[in-house]
Automatic annotation (TrEMBL):
Keyword Transferase found: yes
Xref: InterPro entries: DHS-like_NAD/FAD-binding_dom, NAD-dep_sirtuin_deacylases, Sirtuin, Sirtuin_cat_small_dom_sf, Sirtuin_class_III, Ssirtuin_cat_dom
Record-linked Gene3D superfamilies: SIR2/SIRT2 'Small Domain, TPP-binding domain
Domain notes: 2 residues (Tyr-56 and Arg-59) present in a large hydrophobic pocket are probably involved in substrate specificity. They are important for desuccinylation activity, but dispensable for deacetylation activity.
Reactions catalysed: N(6)-acetyl-L-lysyl-[protein] + NAD(+) + H2O = 2''-O-acetyl-ADP-D-ribose + nicotinamide + L-lysyl-[protein]; N(6)-succinyl-L-lysyl-[protein] + NAD(+) + H2O = 2''-O-succinyl-ADP-D-ribose + nicotinamide + L-lysyl-[protein]
Pfam family, one: SIR2
Family: Belongs to the sirtuin family. Class III subfamily.
Predominant place of localization: cytoplasm
Cellular location(s): Cytoplasm
UniProt KW keywords: Cytoplasm, NAD, Transferase
Protein name per UniProt: NAD-dependent protein deacylase
Residue span(s) of domain Deacetylase sirtuin-type: 1-231
Amino acid sequence: MPERKKIVVLSGAGISAESGLRTFRDANGLWENHRVEDVATPQAWDRDPDLVLEFYNQRRKQALDARPNAGHLALKRLEQHFEVMIITQNVDNLHEKAGSSTVIHLHGELFKSRSTRDETLVYDVPGWELKRGDCCEKGSQLRPHIVWFGEPVPLMDVAVERVNAADILIIVGTSMVVYPAAGLIDSVRPGVPVYVVDPNLPAIRRRKNTTFIPEPATTGLARLAEQLVANAADEV
């Protein structure tokens, strides 16, 4: 049996938005009526941890009832025919809810917390609420397990390696303007086909073997998945 091709997916806020989650800033620069600087930076945490905790508690509460959409499910179906790795900028767990088996969260995970003393101590958040006084095993306050603005992205090196090993790259629901994640496209090997699924096509550098699909994830990914499976069958 021939080795399965490796598909790497770069996903962003657009695919979660189709499940009803607002995962990033609005056009007015606010995030759920808060300035990003007030809820998503280390300085915000130092200044007002109660506000930051409540902000993410509300995000968790909203995400609890969110369901994966047809786009998430199409990516799961691809695992029947390909080795699929999802690299997401989203902090929700919709890819996991859809059943995708390998997901890298570049910007952290909403339903996890971590120690403010030892960042290697990471815990699941029971339910949706993380409170002042919730501590790690070393007695330090827990904070959201989110990569805030101004913090390094610990999993970037892993993501670069996976993109460089990809046989097919799919970009869905991301504007490709937030770095360092946007720079991952530069790690694609020459000749590897790239598919971009988004009704508002991102302004990425055009290159050979790039196909733009100007549709939402719910329809564009479903159609692309059918095409890729058909192509794989023809190659057997």
